[in-house]
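If you are new to this repository, start here. Below is one unmodified record pulled from the training split, so you can see the exact layout before writing a loader.
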Amino acid sequence: MFRAVLMLAGFFSFLSGCSIGNPYKKKNGKWFYDDYEIPDVKGKFQPLNNRCAKDDSTGFYRGSTGFESDGRSFAALDIHYAKDARRVFYCDTYRDGQEYFFYKHNRINTIREADAASFVLLDGSYAKDKNLVFCGGVPFPVADIASFEVLENGFTRDKVQGYYNEKPVSGSDGKTFTSVASHYAKDVKNVYYCFLDFNNPDAVSKISCSVIPGARPDSFQVLEGGYAKDDQHVFFNKNQLSINADGFELLTRGYARSGNAILYDGIAVKNADAATFSVVEPLTDDSTDARDASGRFSAGKKIRE
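And here is the target side for that same chain:
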């Protein structure tokens, strides 16, 4: 078991490219990034973090000088963003499928729209300067830069409106907009459900946000398994269910109970006896995940005995 854990940890370490300690090392008077010898070091070499470094002439990302920068003013802001006196950079890596994703390649972009003097990091991959807000080094428009702030779960806001993955949440009130949980946000007026929609090939944007009809922001809370409720209603994802919040009982494995009804992923389970219904833990070999007095169920459907 311990050997398996070590092998698994090593595999994920390979995928993430993580090194134990700082990969910048000096050996026999020469500087290396991991096993790569850094050529043409000029003057004093200084590692800044485990990605960025500088010498008297230029900045480095993972040992590479594949970008124009001023070493004297070069500074690492985090493992992706860096800047010098005149420029801002976003640095990352990619893998090539033709190489079976075995090697990491550096991708270093000069953010030409950024103002270095006023450029500051926010949370996550967000940053801003006096003119623009950026995510992953890419600028995107916001209504008010000065009040822009990062929330959680992909949500951000300024004093005018909320955003989900850099797309404005239509009709939202920025001053009261807040993240509730993954996919959910609310303001003083509405509750919103947002997700990345990859099932609609005709959509111009894969980002979808909509108001949850009937949801009451003051009492709205997210449960588990896709369920949510307020003091009057129960919801599954963005859909209001035709049941009352009083007496609603969340089970597990996507099941819930409401009065005489059993629900699976928000849909009533046919031929289920709510009084004797229970979820099976753990899942059996034949995929039985629930039982009642008359039979077994799998993913919300009754299994013939």
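Two things worth knowing about this chain: Residues 121 and 127 are 4 Å apart (CA to CA). The chain has one helix and 34 strands.
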